[in-house]
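thought: fold this chain, then report.
action: predict
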Amino acid sequence: MQFFKVGPVWAATRINFTFVPPSNNQQGITEGKGKKNSQFYNNEIRYEPNGSHIEDFLKEKWQEYEFLEYSHSFIQWLFPIKEQGLNYCAQPLTTEEAKEFKNSDEIRVRVIKSLYLMLDFYGLKFKEISEEELLNLDPVTYKDKAIQETENAKDRFQNLNE
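observation:
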C-alpha cells in the first residue's frame, strides 16, 4: 500500500511488485555469491540502493519514523533471509554468513540494535526478563512478561486506525 496526499486527505493505492531476478553478472548478487550481508554488518559497505553503513543507519534513523515508514530498501539488509526479496540489491543470506552472524559478537550486537530500532518504530520495547523466562514465553502471557508499549505507542499505531 502506498500513501500519497491529496489536499488535506491521505489516500492509498495498492502497488503490485513483481520480482525480476538480476542477471548473473550483476555485482555477485546471485545465490551463494558474495558476502554483502556480512560486509554490511561489519560496517564495511553501505546498504543498497543509496544507503549508509549500519552504524550510521542505527544512529541516524533512531526514531525517524517517517523514513522507516516509507522507505523499505533497508529492511532486507537489517534482517537478511535466505531467499531473494524485492530489493534486488540485497543478497540472500548465505550459510557462511549465517555462521558468521552467530559467531561474531560485533554482528550480534548490531542485529540486536536493529531489532530495538524496529520495535521502537512499532511502539514496543522489551521488558527486562531472564533468559529462562524468555525461552519459556507462551502466546497467552507474553505481553505481560516480555513486551510493553512505549510512551509513544498510541502515536505509532495511529496510522493503523486511519
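thought: worth noting. Strands lie at 2-6, 9-13, 124-126, 147-149.
final: C-alpha cells above.
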